[in-house]
Structure formats: C-alpha cells, structure tokens
C-alpha cells in the first residue's frame, strides 16, 4: 500500500517528462469558442444553451447492474477500473450536456478520486452516491460541485445499491436546491472539448474490434460499418439502453494508458492521469497511436505522435483508461 502523501506526489508529477517535455511545451493552443447551437462535447448541433455546464454521472458497470439507463444519450463515456478487487471491475462516468431530456440515468453509484479530476476538466457537476474517504481531499481541492445520493429509488428485484436513478427533472432540481449555477464557471470549458474536424486516419491501421483488458467486464468496441461508429460490447453482449434499447455506440474511441496506484487493502485506487502518456485513437474503422498530456487543473490534451493536436471527428466519444500494467493486453482485430 502507498501512503496518501506519496500518491498525491506521484499524481502531480509529470510522467515521462524527460522524453516528452519539450514536445508538450511546444503544443499550440487548439481552443476555439463553441459556435451557437453546437454542443462543445460532441461538435454536433444542440438546442441547449451553449453556456450550460454538463453533468458527470457515475453509473454502475457490474454485470448485475445491467441494463444501463440513459447511457446511449451520453455525449462522452469514460470507463475506468473502479477497484483492484473483483477482477478489476470497471465503472462508467457518463457526461451529458442535455441531461434534462434523458428520462432515466443510472443506476447511480459512488465516485473515485479519478472521477473528481476528470469531472473538473469539464466544469461539470458530479452526480454520484458517496465514495471512499479518499475522494474528500480531491473534492475540496477542486471545489467540485457534486450531488451525492437522494435520487429516485426504482425497485428492480436487485439489492438496494442497484436501484438508484436520476429521473426527469431531478438533476436540474437538485442543482437549484444545492445553490449551484447550471452555467459554466470556467469559461474555457465552454469551448470545444476536442479539436473537432474531419479525420479519416489516412495512416491508420484497419481495426474492426478492440478488446480491452477489463477482465470483469470483457469490454470490446466493435466497428459497425453501417453506422460508421464503434458499438460497445460487454460480457458477451452488445450494450443497449434499458429505456429505448438503443445501441450504445461512439464515433470516437480513445484508449488511454495511465499508471494506477492502490490506496489500501480494500482495493480503492486512483489513476495517475496528471502528466503525459500514450494511447490509441479509433474512428471510421481505423486506429492510430497517440499521446496525451494533462496538468493538475487543465483538461487532457490528445496529440498525434509528432506532437501536433489530434483532430477528432464530431460525435460521441468513449474514453477507456487502461492501467499501464495491463496496457500490453489491449488487442486489435
């Protein structure tokens, strides 16, 4: 086990700085203000006020929690290891610009320190149900607005921790009740989240399926040529929304390698997502190697291997953060 002091120190250090520091320092700013009527998370049209901040909802990803509700409507979905126990079961963090239009989101579960850091990137309001004590200093450091527990309980024949959902109007009501503003406080977050444009990956390698080393969930992303997107596949089944039965699918897939540090014997952990590292970008049935960079308070920047900004196609995005000790087990077919 590693002490909290050592973990925080390791998170805040720049990984691989000696090899990549000069390249990162030379990265030009790719920030551009979102156009009126454009969702800054997807680059696609939206009727939502462009200054409305998103919410980041913690969604259970254990097999017994299926089906997911509202996941097909998310703009960005993160998948991260939630615990070093139980075959490294993962949890999802779904980010929504237009959360008010989704009838049900969940089921809602607890957050981890990495989720706090990621939600802060978007100036998002975190929706969760508690978490280990390790999240508290992160919430305090980022002054992160969050709504913990107290959402609708919908009986489904499962244990109580699988029954909590955010239903129509609840999130907006809770935001108002907590005194949080629904609008961006960090104006840079109202800018396009990615460097949106057209990217056909001309130098990419054809990839129909990427299998991730999330053993408990058996996560795969399978290219659907008919839709030009990657369908989410877990535990031997395509992942479909529990409300409208939509296939959960993504125009962009980012697979990111990061170190993982364990807090204690209970399996609580945190990713080292501050620093630099490597990854893959998949779109249109192809994949390329990429790099990423993140400082303590800024958002993650994705780059081509030559250090130029990565162009990301407009659409929904999946981001899977894979621990570096299992990075070699990411496979393509």
What features would you describe in this structure?
This protein has 333 residues and is an alpha+beta fold. It has helices spanning 4-12, 17-25, 113-121, 136-142, 170-178; strands at residues 55-60, 76-81, 90-96, 104-106, 125-128, 146-148, 152-153, 164-167, 195-196, 205-206, 209-211, 220-224, 229-234, 237-238, 249-250, 252-258, 260-262, 269-271, 275-283, 286-294, 301-304, 311-312, 317-323, 331-332. The strands form 5 sheets. Strands 1, 2, 3, 5, 6, 10, 16, 19, 20, 21 and 23 form an 11-stranded mixed beta sheet that branches. Strands 11, 12, 13, 14, 15 and 24 form a 6-stranded antiparallel beta sheet that branches. A hairpin with an 8-residue loop joins strand 11 and strand 12. Helix 3 runs parallel beside helix 4. It starts with a helix and ends with a strand. 42% of the residues are buried. Mean pLDDT is 90; it is low at 1-33.
What attributes does this structure have?
6-stranded antiparallel beta sheet; 11-stranded mixed beta sheet; globular; alpha+beta; disordered N terminus; 5 helices; 333 residues
Major beta sheet summary: 11 strands, mixed
Mean pLDDT: 90
% residues in beta strands: 25-35%
Terminal CA distance reads 37 Å
Low-confidence stretches: 1-33
DSSP helical segment count: 5
Helical fraction equals 10-25%
